[in-house]
Fold this protein.
Amino acid sequence: MRIEILTLFPEMCESVLSESIIGRARKQGKVQIHCRNIRDYTQDKHKRVDDAPYGGGFGMVMQCGPIADCYRAVCADWGVTPKLFYMSPQGKVLTQAKAKELSESESFVLLCGHYEGVDERVLEALEAEEISIGDYVLTGGELPALVLCDAVVRLLPGVLAGPGAYEGESHYPQDNTPPLLEHAQYTRPPVWEGREVPAILIGGNHALQEKWRKEDSLRRTQTKRPDLLQ
Ligand code: SAM
C-alpha cells in the first residue's frame, strides 16, 4: 500500500510515522507513506499558500493552485490517479468499517487543511472525499491524517500478529451483528486490591470462556454504547 500525505507540516507527520507499529511497518516495506510539502508547489515568491477569504471573515484560506499542483505531482510520480481524501470536520466521521475499506485499497492521498480550510473549488476539481475524525475542530488536518493512517496500517497483512489481533476488537465490522465493543480484558495478578478476575477466565474451559467473552461484549455495548445496537 502507498499513502501520500499533502501537508504544510511534513516533519510533524514524519515524527509520528517513524515510531512504533507504523514505523516498523514502513521499515519492513509493508506500507509506503510519504509526506509532501504543499508549500513546495506554490508559485508565490514569498512561498505563500493562503490568502484572505472572499466576502470577508476570519482567518486565511489555503489556495487551489499549490494543492492541485502538489496532488498532480503525486499522480505524475506514481503514474496513477489515487483517490484524494480531505481531512475535514465536515466529512463523514471515520469508522472502523471505513478503515477496513481503505486498508483493502492500493493507494490513496490525504490532504491536510490549515487555517480556515481550503478553497472549495480545488476539492470539487480533484473530486476529494471528506473524512472527519469527530465532531470537533482541530487546528490542522495532520493529526486526523495520522489517526487515519494508524487505523488503516494496523489492518494491513503482516503488520499485527494476524487477523485475530483486530477482528474481535471494538467496532470491527461483523457479518450478522452490529459491530460491538470488545469484552473486558484482565491480566496477572488474579486478585488486585481485593478485585478478582472473573473465575471463568482462570479455569481451562475454552468454550465457556468464549461464551463469556461474547456475552460480556454485548453487555458492555448495551451499557456504554447502546447507540451501536440501534
Ligand atoms: N473552518 C473550518 C470549518 O469550520 O469547517 C475548520 C477549519 S480547521 C480550523 C483547519 C483544518 O483542520 C481543516 O481544513 C481540516 O483539514 C482540519 N480539521 C479540523 N478538524 C478536523 C476534524 N474533526 N477532522 C478532520 N480534519 C479536521
Observations:
- The longest strand covers residues 83-93.
- The chain has nine helices and nine strands.
- The two ends are 34 Å apart (CA to CA).
- Residues 27 and 100 are 22 Å apart (CA to CA).
